[in-house]
Write a structure and sequence with these properties.
The protein starts with a strand and ends with a strand. It is globular and about 45 Å long. It folds into two domains: 63 residues, no CATH class; 322 residues, paralog of FGE (formylglycine-generating enzyme) (Alpha-Beta Complex). The chain has five helices and 21 strands. The strands form seven sheets. Strands 4-1-19-18-16-20 form a six-stranded mixed beta sheet, with helices on one face. A four-stranded antiparallel beta sheet has the order 9-10-13-21, with no helix packed on it.
Length: 399
Amino acid sequence: MQDHSFGFPGYSYSDTVGDVVDDADQDENGNGIKDGDDMPEVGWSIGPGQNSRSRSLMRRRVWPLLFAVACSKEAPNVAPQLEASVDVEGGVDGVADADSTAPDCRHPGVTASCVDGLCRIEAGCFLMGSPPDEWGRGRNSEDEVPVTLTHSFFIGQHEVTRKDWAAIGLVPPPLADPGAEDIVPCVLPDCPIAKVSWFDALEYANRLSLSQSPPLPACYELTGCTGTVGSDFECSSATPVGGSIYTCRGYRLPTEAEWEYATRAGTRSAFFSGAITANSSESVCGPDPNLEAIGWYCFNSGNTVHPVMQKKANGWGLFDVSGNVMEWVNDGYDPLGYYGGKPATDPNPTFPFRAGTDDRVNRGGKANRASFMSRSALRFYYSRSTRGWTLGFRIARTE
C-alpha cells in the first residue's frame, strides 16, 4: 500500500453550528489530508498541524458531508455546442482586452480553430486565479496574478481517451475495484483514460511524439523507470528535454498556466459558461445551470464518468475542462499561490518539485464531486504516483 498525499488547501468548511476548519488548522505547508492507497476516499487522517478539536470536527462532521454525494437528478441531454468565437476586445463576461488591475495584460481574441483533436491557443496574457468574491475559492492558493504566455500552443480538444491510449500500443487499465472510489468508471473507447499517474502521462506523451511520421522530439527525459505503463510504472526523475518545456515541439502536458488560460478562453467567471451558484457549504451537491451545461459533476453525472465531448465547448473549442475527470499538468503544487504572487512570463519551464514533496497539480474537477471543484481556478494536487478512476490528462504541444 502506497501513501499518496493530496489536498485543496485554502478552502473553508463550516459545520451546522458555524465551526470552521481553515488554513490555520493545516500544517506549515498548507497540507493536512492523506490518501491511503490510490484514491479510495477512505481511511482519512488529519495532518500534524491540526488541533484535537479540528481533528474531531473533521472526522465527525466535515468529511462525511464533503464526500457524501447527493446525485439525485437525471443527467440532462445537452447537445455539444461549439462557440465559434469570443470577441475579447469587445468584452466577454465584463472583461476587456486590458484588465484594469493589470493594464498591460492583454488577452487576444478567442476563436475556435481545432483540427484532428487539437485546438490552437493564441499566446497572450490573462489574470490567473480567482477574484476574492468567487464562491468556493481557495483562500490562499488562488490569488490573481498576471501571467503572460509568449508561445502559442495546441491543446487536446478533449482528454486523452482509452481509444487514444490503445492507438499507440498501450493497454488501458482494467476495470478493478471501482467501488473503492465511490465512482462508476467509464471504460468505453471514448471515455477519458483514467487510473494513470503523472509518470504514465509523461511516458504517453513521449511515445505519442515518437509515433508521428516523421517522429517529433520527446519532451521528457525520464530516468530510473520501472514497471508497466498504466499499471505500476514509476520513475525516479523527470526533466524537460532542452531545458524548457515551452520550447519542445513534441507532445507534452500543459503547464498549469497554459491549462487555465486555455480553459478560461478569455473569461473571468468561475466557469467559462458563467458564475457559480453558491450553496450552503462546499460539501453540498446542488444544481448549477452554468456548470450543468458544460460538465459532469455530482449533481448531473449519475455518479459515473462519461465519454468525452457530450457537453458544451468553450470559445477555443475545448470540451470537458470542467468536471468528469481531473487532469494532470506539469507543475508541482505551491500552497501559497502562483509564482510568489508576482507577474510571471512562461512560468515553471522546468516544473520543479517543492522541497520535501512529490506533489503534482491536477485541474478540472470530478464527476463525483461538488461544483466548486470544477471552477476554472480550482487547484488540486496528488502525489505523482497516484492513480484513480477520476484522474486523467490532456496533451499539449508548442506551436
